[in-house]
UniProtKB/TrEMBL annotation:
Keywords: Heme, Iron, Membrane, Metal-binding, Monooxygenase, Oxidoreductase, Transmembrane, Transmembrane helix. InterPro entries: Cyt_P450 (IPR001128), Cyt_P450_CS (IPR017972), Cyt_P450_E_grp-IV (IPR002403), Cyt_P450_sf (IPR036396). It comes from Rhizophagus irregularis (strain DAOM 181602 / DAOM 197198 / MUCL 43194) (Arbuscular mycorrhizal fungus). PANTHER family: CYTOCHROME P450 (PTHR46206), P450, PUTATIVE (EUROFUNG)-RELATED (PTHR46206:SF5). This is Cytochrome P450. Its main location: membrane. The chain crosses the membrane at residues 6-26. Belongs to the cytochrome P450 family. It is found in: Membrane.
């Protein structure tokens, strides 16, 4: 009993301390006497705008914009957050010493904390991807195609694995027993595409040999999505203080059993013998060592000291590389296939481009230059990414003691500033009068490839921290679509347009089934 009371006192003291700190911080902000953006009035104390924001984000944000203008603040989960649109968002990206994307990310998803690493741990990844992946994309182009094709074929042939994501219908000729038709019904399609995408990414990250290991590819495919239930814990404790929610997440993550830990252990187990073998060979061969081409090798070379290495550090670097790459790429590929069946009027021309390329190709795989020539497909991918963008995203945390926007409004240190991406991507001035329509060829002959990030296209962010993996991702999506289009007739299972699932400001690919009918057997 005494122990329980003691515990209760400790908790009470802890919460009081946090409230005191919040009060002091709040007063400190007030003392700065800033000219803050208008705070949209709200009815319920503490809850503020949280319910309206999550219930119908698009219309709520539109209404606030119409009534309060370019910059306004909302009270969400116990915190004032600021929202900017097409006029002010470039200032957030330009002033990267004042605003930080990673710091904002850490509030909701403290990955370094989950991994027991310092905040700087993830700092090496952008350069690693920029130099060794996107900067050397030619080294990976053939490998990605080989692994993608293998991955799709394996998934379809290997009924057991495939049945997890839908059904395969195989028809044989009754007299000759010859296979005449294969129809796949993928439901939900995202799970399938996660596997398709994970194998070539694994081949790039840890080498082709390891990417044949099904258990490993399974972990590459699922480590991010298995984490999502943890991220979806409603941050009710944020109403008291954001720190509390973060701490609960860390406790749940670090001390309770969860699928992420299982994937991490498996990845570590699989890469350990490979790293050890490579280090042995590096030591023995010295200058004559022929370095394997993959990200694992780059990290091994960077982190080893006298041919010994902390394998946990390499594992965690692999984990963050997977987090950055697999989920985003497979989501985007799934959106593409949904838009393809939603907008069949563009299919003929896109398919014709793929057939021409296929006919003109003399080798087994395409070169990077040939992939760049899939211009119609590229424009279609960019249009898909434009219309399926999250309504509000790219949250940045204010780092300096305060920041003054060009219209005079100011935000204090620690303020989360969100960008109204939906508004930018559907703005008639930025996107033309047809902004509301899906036009697969919007970017064709405009010198505006899918990888180009600018003030009218923010899917990959903008400025100093623009996604360094975007060239790799777009190439992978292009090759996957090229192969799927040439080999399958793709249809939807209903007559309705497939719409993304919407949670608050986020869009996720629909679970609506897709039908793939093999063209020629
Ligand atoms: C279609 C797929 C992808 C999408 C939509 C996407 C989107 C993004 C976005 C929005 C950002 C934040 C940019 C900013 O702060 O302005 C980002 C950052 C990043 N992405 Fe991607 N990404 C994709 C694929 C990849 C891939 C395949 C990799 C490779 C491993 C990757 C690696 C990274 C890294 C390392 C960063 C952090 C950059 C930095 O902090 O400087 N991404 N990505």
């Amino acid at each position: 009993m005494g122990l329980i009371l003691n515990d209760a006192y400790v908790h009470l003291a802890f919460i009081s301390l946090i409230m005191l700190i919040s009060f002091v911080l709040l007063r400190r902000g007030k003392h700065l006497n800033l000219k803050e953006p208008p705070l949209v009035p709200y009815k319920y104390p503490i809850i503020g705008h949280t319910i309206d924001y999550y219930k119908d984000n698009e219309n709520f944000i539109k209404k606030c914009h119409a009534e309060y203008g370019e910059i306004f603040s909302l009270y969400l989960f116990g915190k004032v957050q600021t929202f900017v649109g097409k006029e002010l968002f470039p200032e957030v990206f330009r002033n990267h010493n004042d605003f930080c994307f990673n710091e904002a990310g850490r509030e909701n998803f403290p990955l370094e904390n989950f991994l027991n690493r310092p905040n700087e741990f993830t700092d090496t990844l952008p350069r690693m991807v920029q130099i060794n992946l996107s900067g050397q994309i030619k080294l990976y182009t053939e490998r990605v195609q080989r692994q993608l094709i293998k991955s799709i074929d394996e998934m379809i042939e290997n009924g057991k694995l495939f049945n997890l994501f839908g059904k395969v219908f195989v028809t044989f000729d009754s007299s000759t027993t010859q296979l005449i038709q294969i129809i796949l019904v993928l439901e939900p399609p995202l799970k399938f595409f996660q596997f398709i995408i994970a194998k070539p990414i694994a081949a790039t990250m840890v080498g082709e040999e390891l990417s044949d290991d099904k258990e490993l590819v399974n972990s590459f495919a699922n480590v991010t999505t298995d984490f999502i239930p943890f991220l979806s814990i409603t941050p009710v404790l944020n109403f008291i203080h954001p720190y509390l929610h973060q701490q609960v997440m860390i406790i749940v993550f670090k001390y309770l059993n969860n699928p992420f830990k299982m994937h991490r252990e498996l990845i570590k187990k699989k890469i350990t013998p490979v790293i050890e073998k490579r280090l042995r060979e590096m030591k023995e061969s010295g200058d004559n060592y022929v370095s394997p081409i993959d990200i694992l090798q780059r990290y091994t070379e960077l982190l080893h000291k006298d041919y010994t290495i902390d394998i946990d550090v390499v594992t965690d670097n692999m984990i963050i590389s997977i987090f950055a790459s697999v989920y985003n790429t497979s989501n985007s590929l799934t959106f593409c296939l949904h838009e393809l069946v939603n907008n069949p009027q563009f299919l003929k021309e896109i398919l014709e481009e793929q057939k021409q390329l296929y006919k003109s190709n003399e080798k087994s795989y395409y070169s990077t230059e040939q992939i760049a020539r899939m211009e119609k497909l590229d424009s279609f991918i960019k249009e898909t990414l434009r219309v399926n963008v999250n309504n509000v995203a790219l949250q940045h945390k204010t780092l300096s003691s305060y920041f003054t926007f060009s219209n005079g409004y100011q935000v204090p240190k620690g303020r989360l500033v969100n960008i109204r991406l939906g508004e930018v991507h559907f703005d008639k001035e930025l996107q033309s009068q047809t902004a509301d329509e899906f036009n697969a060829f919007r970017y064709l002959k405009k010198n505006s490839p899918a990888t180009r990030a600018d003030n009218s296209f923010l899917t990959f962010g903008l400025g100093k921290h623009t996604c360094p993996g975007r060239h790799f991702a777009v190439n992978e999506i292009k090759v996957a679509l090229h192969y799927l289009l040439l080999n399958y007739d793709i249809k939807k299972s209903t007559s309705e347009k497939i719409k993304p699932k919407i949670y608050g400001s986020f869009k996720f690919p629909s679970d609506e089934g897709l039908i793939f009918e093999k063209k020629s057997v």
